[in-house]
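Input/output pair, single chain:
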Amino acid sequence: MARRGRIRHTPAVSAPEDVWIPLVDEPIGTIVNRIQEEDPAIAALVDSPRRILAFRTFAYLRVGLLLGELLVDNEVPQPEDAVETWIEGLLRDPKHRDAVHAEVRAVAEEIAADPALDAGESVGPDAAARERFREFARKHAG
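Output:
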């Protein structure tokens, strides 16, 4: 049987927070958050931590894809000022804004309809895991 070689030179790995793609701070995250704030029905549809995580993940992806399609299929308007992005330029068109809003709303509705994301399902550890932790803490605390 062949023996696996050892990995010899590996570059330093960044801390997890350095690797995280800062979607929340980028235009797509800002757009999704703004639509979610403007449409209270979306917040009602994604009302648990598990649903919020799924919603944000898929909304960011689908809005990004939609914006890419809009960019390819449409002329990007000239910026109104020097700091306007191509996304902001596209979203000046009401039909593009409506399409993005509809996409975000569709994601929220799909997430709300997914029974695997029911709020009754525990997001954290179950009772048995909590008890194991308490026992561990008692043994090691003193």
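Helices lie at 16-19, 27-38, 40-45, 49-73, 86-91, 94-113, 127-141. The radius of gyration is 22 Å.
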